[in-house]
Each structure stands twice: as structure tokens, then as C-alpha cells.
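Teaching note: in complex prediction, the entire set of molecules is handled at once rather than each chain in isolation. The prompt given to students was simply: 'Predict the structure of this complex.' The entities are:
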Amino acid sequence: MNIAELGSSPNADPLVKTIIEHDLTRHIVELDAYGFTVIPPEKLGTPPDFAERLRNSILNTYERRHGVEVGDWRTADLPTPNERAWELVGEDDVITEAVLNPVVLTMARWHCGQSAILGGTSSIIKPPHEKNYLAIHNDTHGVPPPQAAYTHLVNTSWVLTDYADRDDGPTVFVPGSHRWGRAPAPHETKFWEWEGEDRLFEPVPIEAKAGSLAVWGGNTWHGAMNRNSTGLRVTMVLVWLRSYMQRLSMWGESAVSPERLERYPELHKILGYDHPYPFRDYVDKPDKIADMIAPGQDQFA
Ligand SMILES: O=C(O)CCC(=O)C(=O)O
Ligand SMILES: [Fe+2]
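The expected output is the structure of the full assembly:
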């Protein structure tokens, strides 16, 4: 019996068909069991030069936005922090192709429904550094426990340089943490500081060839290793959201007059004018972001 052919579930059927056609069932099982998976290039339907084109596009965008030159990424250090990393979707055809890749869309819709929307695009360009670890967190920022058993959000990240081992500075995951229903508490975040019996769990670094897609739902705990290898790690991150996470109105500058804003100062906060999202050109509200993603939040955060 082929249930997807019955036409009984119009939202699920096209997803199931794509999952079977692209040989993705193993990845759906890994997402279910562990909360993350790595899909290799040969299952993504991309041409052989895709990773190189996308990596060049990400690096060119970084160079142009920051007025610097990287040179050869295999040996380069980062000339300046990648602050203008956001809003990549309109930069280049290859970036748009990466967003619209059928397997990416299937992963987005498998987690967040057919009405999923693209919530953010950004690049990670990571140079060698003794201490550039990323602390364990999950991406469902600001949502108190118990977090829903289904995902509000999914991350599909294009790996654009090889992650051969932990020295390449890859993403690390805590297998099974997507079932724990909460963000990590502060003592559960700095995994590189733990020694011996202090070790709470062992985050797993992913191995992935350039051109692979790493996928994880918003509940999964993850962070990243520091990079010891020469040259840059390059990744393009796509975050997808359930449609109800979009606000009903994007309150622009003209939503209320400056005079009204002055008379009613609380409007700044409730219209989101102080909110760290959306990240525009660069992230200019780091304190607010830190508050929002602080682990162990209660329901009044
Ligand atoms: O790949 C990484 O370094 C992790 C980045 C991260 O936390 C994210 O994209 O949500
Ligand atoms: Fe994250």
C-alpha cells in the first residue's frame, strides 16, 4: 500500500513523496531519534559546482558589505568580524537557489508545515581561534518550558567547507535533546570547560562534506567547536518558521507619528521598535539578543 498516492492527506503527501524520491527516510529517522541530521550533496539534487558557487557568493557578499578582501579562504584569516551577515536571500541567484532547493523546502515544511515562511538568512564565516566555541542553546529563543513537542522553527544550514573533524569548528549537537522540552540552563552551556566528572553530556560534532545540508529542529540543543584548522569555515544558515510566528503587521516607521511616540513611550516596546528582530544590516542590539536567548527563562521573560 502506498499511502501518499491515495490523495487523502494533501499537505503530507507531497512531502512523503519527496522524502522517498530523494532517499531521505534515514534522515527523517535521525531527526526523530536524535533531533539533527546531515544530508549529503548527492541527495540534494545540486550540480557538482554548487557548494563552490554558493561559498564564493557568501564570501563575495561579506567582502562587498565590509569593504575587505578575503583572498584564498583555505589559508585566510577573517579581516573583520562578519557583522553584516543577514538578509542574503536577494544577493545572488545561487543563494536564491539554495533557499528554494526542493530538499530544503521539504525539510522546512516537514517541520513547520506547508505554510512555513523563511524567517532568516545569514552566513557564518569562522576563522581559526583558540576560543571561538559557541555555547549550547536551542533556537526556540524566548520560549519557556515546556516547549512544544512539535517544532516552531527549523534550521537548514548549508555546509560550504568540509567539516572533516572537530578541528574544523563544526556545529555540535546533544542527541535526543529535542525531546527535553526546554532550553539548557546556564550550567549546561559551556561544554568546553567541563572536565572529568563535571562532564554533563558529550555534544557530538557533525561530519559533513562541503555542499551538505545540516538540519535540526528548534528544540534541539547545539553549539559549535572552536576552529583549529587553517582557513575559514563557511556556512549559510536558513531559519524557517511556522506561519503564526510572523506578526500580523510589520509596524513601519509611519505606523504612528513621532509626536504620538513621544506622548506614549510604551509604544516603542509593544510595536517592537526596541526588539532585536528583524536583524537588518547588522546586529545592533546585542544586549537585547542576549536577554532573549538567555537559558532557563521563565514564562514571564
Ligand atoms: O553552526 C554553528 O556554528 C551553529 C550556529 C547556530 O547556532 C545556529 O545557526 O543556530
Ligand atoms: Fe543556534
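Point out the following to students. The first helix runs from residue 13 to 21. Residues 3-250 form a domain with the Jelly Rolls fold (CATH 2.60.120.620).
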